[in-house]
Amino acid sequence: MHVMIIPTMGCPANCSYCWSSEETSHIMTQKTTDDIIEWLKDFQKEPTTFTFHGGEPLLAGYEFYKHILGRIDKELDFLYPAYAIQTNLWKMDDEIAELFKQYEIPIGSSLDGPRELNDIQRGINYYDNTMKGYQIARKHDLNVSFISTFTKNSIKQKEEIFEFFKQKGLNMKIHPALSSIKSHKSDNFAIDPEEYGNLMLYLLDEYLDVADIMELKNIDHLCKGVLRKKGCVCTYVDCMDSTFAIGPDGSIYPCYRFVDMPEFKIGDVADKPSYEELMNTKAELLLKEYKEYVDENCSDCKHIDYCRGGCPYNALVYGDGNMEVSCVDPHCEAYKMIFDKIDELMNQKLDFAFDELNDVIEKDFNFTLNVGFENKPEDSKKKFTVMDIALKP
């Protein structure tokens, strides 16, 4: 289970393409945090990841996290809680960093590239504010990764952006600027599926040379998905019955992307709704409809098991004033491009391994097959293979 806690939708930054923060949003009260704990005590009994998101979740402050983390750790230990946070790091300080280290909370932040390029998209001084917080987090040995959002403009500088992350040794995740059902603010920044697909192909090729000095989480997840035949990150799994986002006022939604959208509210933590009650709401039934739509319309796609039609939020559209399901994730073309390439390279790798195995068997029955770093074609120009990436711990 994944519980996303949204302490506030407020944010001190003003990113040009952002549609998920509101300047006037209030901060979650202690009563609401306590309601969350009491609700979860009798909700589900399975391992749970708690992700703090926003807006900018660090606006909630040290006391907020000290209180809620302490209660989760002591009273919800049967959920074997794991933690994560997505923050711009502007409000990071030694006190918060020390607390996060106590709970081993990995940090996701946002940086679109070098200072000048980043600040054009995210606002003046964004880069310096974030890097200052990053240095504090690293001083306390916290694990920090960055989401880099590619827009219509920045995708033209993909080489410079990747080189920046490589030279800095920063782990990164790629996010395409998206149109949103919540706001049209990002429409002019959104990249089309073919652009996104070509970006991912470029990054895959580059990553195969540097996977020992940085992580490119998208490629890691995609390779693992193809190998395991099962998606391993939210975009590529049926998350609609296992993810719950809690807004600042205690309202429950299917995902943080839907927070503050009344038509997607499925409950309130103060009411302690049951799992069955949440699943029978209009919003959850719509998402179930999306799952069924994927099963029917993607059944002939070889990638269906580890793609699952992409993100349902991206696919939902308004029709006659109501939200409806009429397509899969619009980035389907991009997903096919990168999945096809990974599948092709993985099959080449396996073919080579079995050819080598046959040669060894012919010579000696005492053999060892190592489908790993050493086992690649002699003419390979890449340091790693997609199989190496898929087998990373």
Task: Write up this protein.
The chain is of the alpha/beta class and 393 residues long. The protein has helices spanning 30-41, 62-75, 94-102, 115-122, 126-139, 158-168, 193-207, 217-228, 275-279, 282-297, 304-307, 312-315, 332-363, 386-390, and strands at 2-5, 49-52, 82-86, 107-110, 144-150, 171-176, 243-246, 251-253, 267-268, 317-319, 322-324. The chain has a single domain (1-363, 382-392), classed as Aldolase class I (TIM Barrel). Strands 6-5-4-3-2-1-7-8-9 form a nine-stranded mixed β-sheet. The protein has a two-stranded antiparallel ribbon with strand order 10-11. A hairpin with a 4-residue loop joins strand 7 (243-246) and strand 8 (251-253). Helix 1 (30-41) runs parallel beside helix 2, helix 7 packs parallel to helix 13 (332-363) and helix 8 crosses helix 13. It is globular, with a radius of gyration of 22 Å. Residues 365-374 have low confidence and may be disordered.
The biggest beta sheet, please?
A: 9 strands, mixed
Beta strand %: 5-15%
- Number of separate domains: 1
CATH architecture name = Alpha-Beta Barrel
The rounded Rg comes to 22 Å
- Approximate helicity band: 40-55%
Spatial separation of the terminal alpha carbons: 21 Å
Gross morphology: globular
Widest beta sheet: strand line-up: 6-5-4-3-2-1-7-8-9
What is the total tally of β strands? 11
Poorly predicted spans: 365-374
Average residue-wise pLDDT: 90
Organism: Methanosphaera cuniculi
InterPro entries: 4Fe4S-binding_SPASM_dom (IPR023885), Aldolase_TIM (IPR013785), CHP04083_rSAM (IPR024018), rSAM (IPR007197), rSAM_sf (IPR058240), SPASM_CteB-like (IPR047602), Sulphatase_maturase_rSAM (IPR023867)
Family: Belongs to the radical SAM superfamily. Anaerobic sulfatase-maturating enzyme family.
Protein name: Anaerobic sulfatase-maturating enzyme
